[in-house]
Amino acid sequence: MPTDFHDLTARLTSVYSKRLALRPVCLSDTWPLFDATRHPTFNQHLLWDQPDNEWEVYRRVEAVVEATRTGKMASVSAVLKETGAWVSLFRFQPTAEPEAEGTLEMGLWTHARYWHGRISLELGRMCVDAAFQASGVERLIGITSVDNRASQQLMELVGLHLRGTALRACESGGTRTSMVFELDRATWLRQRRGQTFAAYEDAEHAREHAAHADRGLPHGAAWWTKMTARAAPATPVSSLSGT
Fold first, then answer.
1. Whole-model pTM?
2. What is the 3-state secondary structure (H, E, C) of 116-171?
């Protein structure tokens, strides 16, 4: 059954984690995204070149907003819960290559100030879990360039595994060899059954949760039981997808 992107977007905007909350993408995201592209390596592994001005980014965000409005993709922006600061723009969309029904490609553009630490990992896990929980998607695909080791590590940490390589067309012309990672629903369910704590916890909260469990006390945060994933060390990342 085709993915209902309107419904998926609506469900995603109710998801939050320890540090992040998801909200609809809006045109004002142009300016933090443009600021993100000022980092010299932001576009290095993407299929589009560094924009020369804000107008180019405005048109890109406008295209995402329009595609979301017309049900062609699901998209959300991640912001810090404490301040509302823009962190990343996350997208689920039909795959560029023919795939089985129920397969979505995912990608994110994240500001450089959040490449280090656990923010990108927290976001990736949160959105992967939410996609499987909130829709009938059977398989998620993530694509990155062959030399973007940080992105490859992020995909592995959120549960995807390497499937192979594919040639991807760049907006400026030519092609680029990319690595294709995937995660199917059955594998995701097995991973969840083998996991203990929520995707968003850090070591401090894990100890707190364990202490509550040892004393037979309930934990106060509902999201402890909403999504689960294995803990992982901090790693610098810039993108979950090469698009």
1. 0.76
2. CCCHHHHHHHHHHHHHHHHCCCCEEEEEEECCCHHHHHHHHHCCCEEEEEEEEECC
